[in-house]
Automatic annotation (TrEMBL):
It comes from the Bacteria. Pfam families: Polyketide_cyc2. It comes from Actinomadura napierensis. Transmembrane segments: none annotated. This is SRPBCC family protein. Gene3D superfamilies: 3.30.530.20. InterPro entries: Polyketide_cyclase/dehydratase, START-like_dom_sf. CDD domains: SRPBCC_2 (cd07819).
Length: 144
C-alpha cells in the first residue's frame, strides 16, 4: 500500500475544534458523504476511539470494515484497517492539522486496497473523490 493520495484544505477554525469534529466518529454520517454508519467499539482514556466499525456506500462498492485509531493530540490522527471487509482489503488514512494564518490547514491522506483489480490511476481518482468530499464536509461542519 505504498501509493497514497492526499489533499489539503484551510478551515477557519481552531485545531482543537476541528479535531473535535474528526473525533466524533459516530456523527460522520451527518457530514461525510458515503458514510452510512460508524460504531465506536473501544475508547481510550481521553474518550477518543481506539477501534470502530465503519459502513460506507462508495458508489459501486459498499462495505463494512474494522479500523484502529492512533491520536496525536489535536495535531494528527491515523487509522489502519484491522478487520477486512468483503471489498476493502487494506486501508490507511491520516488527518494532519497545522495552524495556518487565522485558520487551520487540514491534510487528509488515504490509501485503499480492494479485492477487485483496479488500475492505479482509477484507484487514486476514487481516493481523491473520497478525500475531497470528506474535506469539504469537514470544513462545512467545523465552520458552522
Amino acid at each position: 500500500m505504498a501509493d497514497r493520495t492526499s489533499s489539503s484544505i484551510t478551515i477557519k477554525a481552531a485545531k482543537a475544534d476541528i479535531m473535535a469534529v474528526i473525533a466524533d466518529l459516530e456523527a460522520y454520517p451527518e457530514w461525510a458523504s458515503g458514510i452510512r454508519e460508524f460504531t465506536v467499539q473501544e475508547t481510550g482514556p481521553d474518550g477518543r476511539a481506539l477501534r470502530g466499525r465503519l459502513t460506507f456506500d462508495g458508489g459501486p462498492f459498499s462495505d463494512t470494515v474494522g479500523l484502529a485509531y492512533t491520536w496525536d493530540g489535536d495535531d494528527r490522527v491515523s487509522w489502519e484497517l484491522v478487520e477486512k471487509g468483503t471489498v476493502v482489503t487494506g486501508l490507511h488514512g491520516t488527518y494532519a492539522l497545522a495552524e495556518a494564518g487565522g485558520g487551520t490547514e487540514v491534510t487528509y491522506e488515504l490509501a485503499v486496497d480492494v479485492r477487485v483489480p483496479m488500475i492505479g490511476m482509477v484507484k487514486r481518482k476514487g481516493e481523491k473523490r473520497i478525500i475531497d468530499s470528506a474535506l469539504k464536509g469537514l470544513k462545512r461542519r467545523a465552520e458552522r
